[in-house]
Amino acid sequence: MLKEAWTLAIETLSWMEMQKLSERLALAKTVKQLGIRDANAVRLAHMLVCETVRRRNFIDNFINNALKPESLSEFNLGVQAFLRLYVYQTRIAKNWSKIDIEEAESIAKLARSILGWGTLRKVEHMLGVLLTQKPTLIIEGVSDEERIGLLTFHPTWFVKYCFKLFGRKEAVAMLELDAKPPPTYMRLNTLKADENEILERLAEDGIKVEKVEELMYAYKVIGTKQPLTKTESFREGLFCIQDKASCFAAEVTDPKLEMTVLDVCAAPGAKTTYLAQLMQNRGVIYSMDYSKRRMSVWKSEVERMGVEIAVPIIADACNPSPLTIEADIVVLDPPCTSTGAFGKLPSAKWRLTRHSVDKMAEIQWLMINSCAENVKPGGTLIYSTCSTTVEENEMLIERFLKWHPEFSLTEITPKIGLPGLRGMEKCQRLYPHIHQCNGFFIAKLLKSKI
Predict the structure, then answer these.
(1) Bridge partners, 3 (sequence order)
(2) pLDDT at position 444, please?
(3) Using 50, 70 and 90 to split pLDDT, how confident is the model at 11?
(4) CB 175 within 8 A of CB 229
(5) What is the dihedral of CA 284, 325, 271, 154, to 10 degrees?
(6) 386 classed as catalytic
(7) With the C-alpha atoms ordered 53, 57, 63, 69, is the resulting torsion angle positive or negative?
(8) Average pLDDT, the chain
(9) Pick the catalytic residue: 50, 265, 336, 386?
(10) If you ran DSSP here, which 8-state letter would residue 258 be given?
(11) Would you call 323 helix, strand, or coil by DSSP?
(12) In the predicted model, what is the mean pLDDT of residues 276-283?
């Protein structure tokens, strides 16, 4: 099992480097490629990959310091991946204190069998150095922003951005918590059974949960005896694994029975299924996404959750909508930089640059303008992202309101977040270090009846 897990982890990191894939996509690709069926090996590989990628900047600096005058980039992807995993497992997982020589030797032996003796020989002499080098060496003589970036595992440009937007104290608090995986939340599906019955079934499956008091059906997962997706209650569609922020967005939308709703960028389906639940499967939801692959996942999720009112549409929301409908509610959760979800998607932070923020905001601008055309007079447009940047959120809404005077911001309920920035107090923001969920922004816009 251990060899399979390390083989998976090394190959997954290599695919991520080569094709800029996310952790999930790269792991799925590697599992299929290698034909690995051992669930324990896959789980261990997933943990190794996520926790190594989460700390990538620190690990790379640590390795490069040991390799001088050589650098990590001079070696092939397999060796790069192994060295990163080696530092994580032998040093970081031990909190930099305990040195387990026996484990280190065992991991080196594994690497020889996976990569080949000849390949590993080029760096094997450095494994002892990596096992004893002091981590404090890499933060000596660097700027404050770079030091915080290394200690909280964030790119320096993003640290500078957060310092400017939130102030140093608040930014550091957010970045420190953002460096850890967020809690797992689920939403109970009352289309399948009532809330108390589902809670009983969860207990039978060995799942412990805690109610999120501000929301209707959201629960925090406290513990589980097996992966949530392997439980009988999951297979039966009794719950959806859904972050608290995403549940909040659906409840802010507040759809009524018999309404017509347009859910834009709908895949993989958490929003669609919650909206249908709130509508008690009465009305119609047009769910649009550009990706056939993601919409196949959406279809499976809609079926699992017992949704009967959702209509799939494959279309690019950057272009004028193929629909001529006027919806009571249009929900737009566009692609974003995911700067509020680094805890959940650690690889995202290493793919981004400062330019990525502006580039993404322009895509979102095209989408929100397209969506505005499908909102009926007196209808509502919901805009949300899991980004913490102002360019993708408040600044975009400011621009939209100038171009579309027929829309105005309206109050959001429930109020579980903090007011938006730049004086946009009717918008809501959630922060990882305050609300224990993904960072999130949401605006609710009302279209005038005239």
Answers:
(1) none
(2) 98
(3) very high
(4) no
(5) 180
(6) yes
(7) positive
(8) 95
(9) 386
(10) T
(11) coil
(12) 98
* C-alpha–C-alpha distance, residues 135 and 156, integer Å: 18
For 133-149, the pLDDT digits (tens) are 999 999 999 999 999 99
Alpha-carbon radius of gyration of the chain:
23
Neighbour-count burial for 398-425, b at 16+ CB within 10 Å, e otherwise: eebbeebeebebeebeeebbeebbeebe
Q: Is the dihedral of CA 226, 232, 233, 237 positive or negative?
A: positive
DSSP state letter for 436: S
In this structure, are residues 30 and 16 in contact, taking their beta carbons and an 8 Å threshold?
no
Q: Which two tokens stand for residue 165?
A: 């937007």
Cβ neighbours of residue 405 under 8 Å, at least 6 residues apart? none
CB of 319 closer than 8 Å to CB of 295:
no
The DSSP code for 316 is -
Domains present along the chain, CATH in parentheses: 2-139 (1.10.940.10), 144-178 (no CATH), 185-241 (3.30.70.1170), 248-447 (3.40.50.150)
Q: Which residues pair with 346 in a beta bridge?
A: none
Confidence of residue 449 (pLDDT cuts 50, 70, 90): confident
Q: What is the per-residue pLDDT for 38?
A: 87
- Residue 69: is the preceding peptide bond cis (ω within 30°)? yes
Question: Sign of torsion, CA 94 98 99 103?
Answer: negative
Q: Are residues 42 and 79 in contact, defined by beta-carbon separation less than 8 angstroms?
A: no
